[in-house]
Design brief:
Blueprint: H1 15-33, E1 36-39, E2 54-58, E3 70-75, E4 78-88, E5 98-102, E6 113-114, E7 118-122, H2 129-140
Antiparallel strand pairs: 1-2, 2-7, 3-4, 3-7, 4-5, 5-6
Length: 145
């Protein structure tokens, strides 16, 4: 009978642990390369970022983010690219700072994005003044959607 030299023990990670690991790996890759290409796969930001649009993302800290910035964040185990509406002054339950975001074509706002969920800012595209105005009008007047 063979005697094992070592044994491997694997701990099954929870979904939350996998999500955190993905965020850490993506941030590390961004820090190393400074920018990464992504492709838009939904219509939530059209016509600003239509399906198939290639974008470049770059690392960003919470303090650098401003209203109307396009950011990438993790939400429900997927990457989302939406626009920042505002920084929220009331922190999340754990004291973490949050952002209020919204897709250009979405009816409502996203759940507050926690600072730990922010991955990057879109560096290749910015909202023009007219797009900002339309973004605000769509949020205020649902009939424009």
């Amino acid at each position: 009978m063979a005697c094992p030299i070592f044994t491997l023990k694997f701990k099954v990670m929870s979904e939350k642990e996998w999500k955190l690991a993905e965020i850490v790996l993506l941030r590390a890759l961004l820090q190393e390369r400074k920018t990464l290409p992504i492709t838009i796969i939904s219509e939530s930001m059209a016509p600003l970022l239509p399906v198939g649009c290639r974008c470049t993302i770059a690392p960003v800290s919470y303090t650098e983010i401003k209203s109307f910035d396009l950011i990438v964040f993790f939400s429900e185990d997927k990457l989302v690219c939406h626009a920042v509406w505002a920084k929220q002054f009331l922190p999340a339950a754990n004291g973490e700072r949050t952002l209020l975001t919204r897709g250009f074509n979405n009816a409502g706002f996203d759940y507050p994005v926690r600072e730990s969920e922010i991955v990057a800012r879109v560096s290749s595209h910015k909202m023009s003044k007219w797009q900002r105005l339309l973004f605000v009008l769509k949020a205020r007047f649902p009939i424009l959607r």
